[in-house]
Amino acid sequence: MAPLNVLMVGTGEYTTGFVGGGASTSDKRVGVVCLTLCMMASKSSGFEKLAEFTIREHLQKNVSAVYNGLDVSFASFPPDSTERDPNAYKAAIDAMDPGDAVTIFTPDATHYPIAMYAIERGIHVLITKPAVKLVGQHQQLLIEARKRGISVFVEHHKRFDPAYSDAKSKASLLGDFNYFYSYMSQPKSQLETFKTWAGRDSDISYYLNSHHIDICESMIPDYRPVFVTANGSRGTAESLGCVKGTEDTISLLVNWQNRKDPSKTGTAVYTARYVNVSRGCETGVDMS
Asked: Taking CA 208 as the corner, what is the angle to CA 192 and CA 169, rounded to the nearest 5 degrees?
């Protein structure tokens, strides 16, 4: 079987670790997606294509020079001579063959048009969470993918974290669901990475609460959400350059109901923050 050709759409922190003209100051300074694909390509004759602007020097210095001369060459869309083209992904996808694959690690509002363009051309898709922001768009992606036999996977990577896998296994022994609480916060320095879209096209709940909503739902497949309220706080993100109205913290209060026995209900609280004062990411989960 011929090796899989992969297009990486998005050149930011998760793909390459390249943020604001250099390596990210977070734990993803060399990215995740690009490094993984380069490792895989070193064992085959596959290739990677990179959408948007060029970051060859960053990859050479922080990936190739560190990982024993790992090949980090790629074809760029748009060409290196073009600074930026928001529609470059179309030319890149058009250059691929049905059965190839694309990873999408871009701001939330851009996921749907990129994914749909790929699906319509027979390209398999891996989208970072949240897949989309609207239920109707999510359903449309499902319809088109099933129609064409295309695989579309949402990158909820917490599912594969050993701590969460262990928690899910233990949760099955707790009996009927009653209460779930989660908290996740990123250092406010991360707003340097996200301020171009934070508060404009998406928010911290889409970005972080999506992890724990996914984990919670996977633990209680017999329950469905029936009522949601949300509350947020503001001030710090705005002072750091985000647009007016950007929430620092968002908490969701969700009522879940057993599908088979509506008399059985549970409560979940999901909290996400941009403005942790420490440098690291903090996470906590409680379930009963």
From this structure: 145
Provide the token pair at 271: 């909290």
Report the DSSP beta bridge partners of residue 255.
Answer: 227, 267
- Sequence-separated (6 or more) residues with CB below 8 Å from residue 206: 108, 130, 133
Other beta carbons within 10 angstroms of residue 205's beta carbon come to 21
- 104 C-beta neighbours (distance < 10 Å), count: 24
For the chain (288 residues), the mean pLDDT of every run of 10, in chain order, is 76 59 56 58 39 58 74 70 77 91 87 95 93 94 96 90 90 91 85 75 89 93 96 90 90 97 97 77 62
Write the single-letter amino acid at 198: A
Nearest to 63 by CA among 3, 15, 127: 15
Total-model pTM = 0.77
Q: How many CB atoms lie under 10 A from the CB of residue 265?
A: 16
